[in-house]
Design goal:
Blueprint lengths: L14 E5 L4 E6 L8 E4 L6 H34 L14 H17 L1
Antiparallel strand pairs: 1-2, 2-3
Helix pairs in contact: 1-2
């Protein structure tokens, strides 16, 4: 059974990590909203430090996603527009970075549908 993806947009970034004395860490909007985007329970066995690192990683990835996506699109566009004489034999199509950008961008677009 597949679920239709909702048209609802995620909470605006930037986000931040907020650890509490009660053993939880929250991913929250930086704008001071009182609610959280995600909650991780740091009291799970000996996983507290790893979960805190995971929360920081989530925040870092999400806060930079749009900028990285735009940069990847710009880089691919530039590589595709450069005259083939400026590349080694075979043009941009033979450059591993071109295919890597195309594949990554296709996967992102597929996930967003």
């Amino acid at each position: 059974m597949t679920q239709a993806k909702a048209a609802t947009k995620h909470t605006a970034t930037p986000w931040q990590v907020h650890a509490t004395d009660g053993g939880a860490v929250y991913v929250q909007p930086l704008d001071g909203s009182a609610w959280s985007v995600a909650r991780l329970d740091l009291n799970i066995e000996d996983k507290g430090p790893q979960l805190l690192a995971n929360a920081a990683y989530i925040v870092q990835a999400c806060n930079n996603f749009e900028k990285l996506l735009a940069s990847a699109k710009s880089a691919l566009e530039f590589m595709e527009q450069v005259e083939s004489d400026d590349w080694e034999e075979g043009g941009a199509e033979t450059m591993p970075a071109v295919e890597a950008f195309r594949q990554a961008l296709a996967e992102i677009e597929e996930a967003q549908q």
